[in-house]
# Entry
Amino acid sequence: MTLDMLPQSRTRFDDWAQTLLDAPLARDGDAPSLQRQLHTRLRMAILGGRLLPGSRLPGTRALAQSLGISRNTVTSAYEQLAAEGFLHPDRQGTKVAALSRPATPARKAHAPVAADRVTRLQRSRPRGDSTAALRPGIPALSHFPLAAWRRTLDRTLRHAGPATLGYGAPAGEPALRASIARHLAIARGVRCEADQVIITEGAQEALSLCVRLLSNPGDTAWIEEPGYRGARAAMHGGDLRILPMRVDADGIVATREDWRTQPPRLVYATPSHQYPAGAVLTIARRLALIDAARTHGAWIIEDDYDSEFRHAGEPIVAMQGLVEDAPVLYVGTFSKTMFPALRLGFIVLPQALMVDMAQPLSELLRGGHRHEQLALAEFIESGQFARHLGRMRRLYRERQLGLREALGLHLDVPHEILGGHSGLHLTVRLPAAYPDERIATDARQHGMAPDPLSGFAMCRGVEDNGLVLGYGNTSAELFEPLVRRLSQVAREATGT
# Structure
């Protein structure tokens, strides 16, 4: 029924009004306002086709009397619907506007679909929460000096002023960029000035930004195999052709034949502590990689995600600082040295790129987290950051030794511990008879969240079967019972 065919009697009009609105308007205290209810009912009647385009609505007085509500309520509902384009008022009254209708089954429409690059993203295994035992990538959250950080942040908020509530410099707060440059020069041997440091929202944005700035769709990118899934996601997001490059005990393997037959535009590597296998890229391979990248016009993305935590010997110097003007973009994050929720990372761009990148960076970045950036700059300059790192190095050194000892004593299935003495995780390789994905899934039922090694490989081989065990956020006294339970889970996965 349309309003052009309204019955003449008052009673029949009242019945029509209530039928059109589906049900009487609710008047209890928990219900939305009468104006909101009337607006919603009329809107649904129009969208559902019960009020056709061109139909004339009753006057506000008549509808108000029929529904037992105030005229102002009806008037406000009509005005809102007119503002949204559902109604069209004119001198003769108010009509239903002409609307485009969704395609019906008789007129089959093309359903919107996601971009192809989205379908190439590998689904990650469900993760436990940050407190789950043996979860990789989580630092010792309970050991972070939260009180000191809160005081630093409070001082920043008191003294920053209202100007810092606006957009910041696209590349980040100058104070933080300068602090990072000074820290990297001392701690990591990185060659850079403050203007080369670009602040990002974590390492993942840094990787995506590298892809956007330095590659075109269809370009070739090399990534480590097995390797960090976030790097793979960033490369897929740029529609790059990804080639997994096998990693051995000395890091990523890239031969002259590889450079000749499938030269990359980008090379992603974790040279100081390969993720997840733990290898350290040898100096010979580092220099060869830099030389080949220069020859072939490629860029190396050096992800230095947890190199601050070296537990044996001297720190491994960053590849970026080995030679002058190396074609290396150095990526870092504070997720491991501070805490993941901070969401601050950075890129150190080669000086040769700075002129060409100034304008693109100003368009791609907006400058946010200003108070956190300023607080972090003070945290670094005051020495609190260095003291925190020192405490964490000692803690993680003890935890890694404890986990190694527990694995040696209580993991009574065949295994091999990979990698050196760095970072926040150990990787255990298992025979193929022990399915790592099933073991990792079953371990979740016991409060553990190890990652299956096979999940880090694009082309899985027998050597990619194992578990990545995080010890950063797990107390050392728990390692023995956890490893015993993990050993039991592994045996049960094989039926033994």
About this structure: The first helix runs from residue 10 to 20. Residues 1-8 have pLDDT under 50 and may be disordered. The radius of gyration is 31 Å. Residues 60 and 74 are 6 Å apart (CA to CA).
